[in-house]
Amino acid sequence: MYEYRKLNQEQKVNLIQERLKKGYPPHSPPHPIKDSEFYLITKTCYEHKPRIHSTERRQQLLNEIFDKFINQGIEILAWVVLPNHYHLMTKNVDFKELSKTFRLIHGRLSRQWNLEENTTGKIWYSFSDRAIRSERHYYTTLNYIHYNPVKHNWVKSPYDWGESSVHWYLENYGREWLRNCWVEYPVRQYGKGWDDL
Predict the structure, then answer these.
(1) Angle formed at CA 117 by CA 87 and CA 28, multiple of 5 degrees
(2) Which are the contacts of 40, defined by CB distance < 8 A and separation ≥ 6?
(3) Which of 4, 42, 97, 104 is the most buried (most CB within 10 A)?
(4) Alpha carbon of 108 to those of 30, 84, 101, 143: distances in Å?
(5) Which CATH number is associated with domain 31-196?
(6) Is the pLDDT of residue 79 over 90?
(7) Residue 55 above 50 pLDDT?
(8) Of 28-32, 65-69, 123-127, the least confident
(9) What residues contact residue 119 under an 8 Å CB cut-off, 6+ apart?
């Protein structure tokens, strides 16, 4: 919806009407598939500002996520936290509870980080989700998550980014498994043709 600001008034009205016809909320991301086993959850900082700019903040966020998600019975299968957004691949999501959980996590962190920076303002934007539709979609998403720090030019190798599940997979499955997964399920234009996966 960041593109929304670039639209003229007529385009904005048309876009909102189209979203409402589909049963989507007027501005926040829709959550159309509610019965999948696995989801890619993406949460961004407001206007993509790098508010998760330190290792300490990224680790604090991860600790909060794992603590709260475990209490909700949500299993986290893969993750990466970058300075301005993060991705989680999850299992067993209840979206009403997920929204409450995000409010708990992000409300507390927003207050703390605004105080640390002696500022006020919105830190987080609404989350989006994508139901994982197949085995290929699952493993391609896993690779996408691990490759995200490279995609956004934070590091040259996924192994160089600390706040990523690539290290858990490396320790538990090994480099050869990760390499084979990458070769068999390459990312290539990830996001295009989602519904074909």
Answers:
(1) 40
(2) 87, 88, 89, 129, 130, 132, 141, 144, 145
(3) 42
(4) 25, 17, 11, 31
(5) 3.30.70.1290
(6) yes
(7) yes
(8) 28-32
(9) none
Domain positions in the chain are 1-28, 31-196
Planar angle of CA 138, 33, 6, nearest 5 degrees? 95
Residue 42, phi then psi, degrees to nearest 5: -125, 130
Q: Which two tokens stand for residue 104?
A: 């708990």
User: Tokens in use for 108?
Assistant: 């507390």
User: Residues with Cβ < 8 Å from 52, sequence gap 6 or more?
Assistant: 45, 58, 61, 81, 82, 83, 84, 86
Q: How far apart are CA 135 and CA 38, in angstroms?
A: 10
C-beta of residue 86 within 8 angstroms of C-beta of residue 66: no
Which residues, in sequence order, are bridge partners of residue 124?
A: 45
> Across 5-138, where does the E strand assignment appear?
38-44, 75-81, 85-91, 128-131
Distance CA 39, CA 132 (A): 5
Reading the block at residue 24, the tokens are 């989507």
Q: How far apart are CA 93 and CA 74, in angstroms?
A: 6
Residue 119 pLDDT:
86
Q: Where are the beta strands (DSSP E) in the chain?
A: 38-44, 75-81, 85-91, 128-131
12-21, 132-141, 152-161, 167-176, range with the lowest pLDDT? 12-21
